[in-house]
Amino acid sequence: MSPSQPATVPCQYRTGRTLGSGTYAIVKEAIHVKTGQYYACKVINKKLMEGREHMVRNEIAVLKRISSGHPNIVTLHDYFETAHNLYLCFDLCTGGELFDSICARGQYTEADAAELVRTILGAVKYIHDCGIVHRDLKPENLLFRSKPERTSEIMIADFGLSRVMPDSKFSMLTEVCGTPGYMAPEIFKKTGHGKPVDVWAMGVITYFLLAGYTPFDRDTQKQEMEAIIAGDYRFEPEEYWNNVSEAARSFVSSCLTVDPDSRPTAAEALQLPWITAEVPHYVEKDGQPADLLPHVRKAFDARKTFRKAVFSMMAMKRMSTLAAAHLSPEHRQFNEDLFNFKQESEKEVLEHMDVIHHHNADVVHQDPVPAGLDESLSPGSSSTVLKSGDGGKDVTDKFAAVSLAAKVSHATKAM
To answer: What local confidence, expressed as pLDDT, does residue 289 receive?
Structure first.
């Protein structure tokens, strides 16, 4: 057989319903035919990924390094390709996103928040120990494996923006990427960034878990960026913070240290008093833990309403712009291709199909820290999506692992 024609094998999966859709990929429920195990299968159309192949290559490289190494990190179990698509099989997380699950609870205390942060931070430390920086930590990328939601089953997902490199070279990362409200000052400054950006994001997430809103919420993205660069935040309004301990506030302040060199590492943050419970969490006068849920839910619901209004305005503006441009022939062709290629991906039936199989669960478990990707993913293979020559483009689109219970808009985030 010619080297340019990789061997094919019978597909081991059957796909089911579509869980979500993004710009370049859809996510479908998939079942392994022999084991009956369910997965979230990201289906990436090769035609849509031309020029963006390095994003898929990067995500696979990161996930191969850390998969199955920590219980709170989503695992890439398998990946393979057909003539039209690349398939990535992840854990199927059915418990929903972090904050939706919190808001559905009957009670939620500061001790609950501390336990969540301790668990997530432990996974972040593991990622950092593997030489990886996540760069897009936020509540939407924290999923519960199943219902009922247990803190021990919170999972970090979406490694589309992650990078693997030695500490000495992290300063070379200067592109602006991530989700604005959770991005560290050094990302905006383009002075070079690395693992400390994840600790900053943990500070924002912790603030969010305690109050239901983020510390740098502003009317415009420019104002938000300026506040982040200056480290300008407060524990206000007071009604939201009356039942939050000084130890919790101190933890947030440590993580939100503007100077990345002075910011604690993930390992150091795990030793701070609030996490180790050396300081008692705030309790009400009757000796019972304060219930943070009423204020957290109130702030979160208000934030969701505001975000819906903003997204609506953005969509209307985008439609107006397109209408003003009278949709050039090129734009119309792009939209048509986008629709057709995604339809292609969604309609493909894996059962009884032969596929090019690059990876399986055994390889993940036996080779947790590979030097690189499989040699079968060769730049010379015309039928392989992971091609060379992407030129190191700074493309910040990203794929995401998927929560079955999440809204379609959150189920997959296009890379």
So the answer is: 86
Per-residue pLDDT of 231-287, as tens digits, reads 999 999 999 999 999 999 999 999 999 999 999 999 999 999 999 987 777 777 677
Cα 225 to its chain centre, rounded Å, is 21
Tell me phi and psi for residue 19, to 5 degrees: -95, -30
What is the SS3 string spanning 242-283?
A: CCCCHHHHHHHHHHCCCCCCCCCCHHHHCCCHHHHCCCCCCE
| Active-site hit among 78, 136, 158, 198 | 136
Q: What are the domain boundaries of the chain? A: 99-138+166-310
Residues 309-326 have pLDDT tens digits of: 444 444 444 544 555 555
Largest CA distance in the chain: 77
d(CA 86, CA 56): 9
Check: CB of residue 42 under 8 Å from CB of residue 50: no
Query: Which residue's structure tokens are 């050396």?
Result: 278
Architecture per CATH, domain 99-138+166-310, reads as Orthogonal Bundle (1.10)
CA angle (295 as vertex; 289, 301 as ends), nearest 5: 140
pLDDT digits (tens, 9 = 90+) for 92-132: 998 888 988 888 888 899 999 999 999 999 999 999 999 99
Which residues participate in the annotated binding site? Answer: 42
136 is catalytic: yes
- Nearest Cα neighbor of 404 from 12, 40, 35 is 40
CA distance 377 to 366: 19
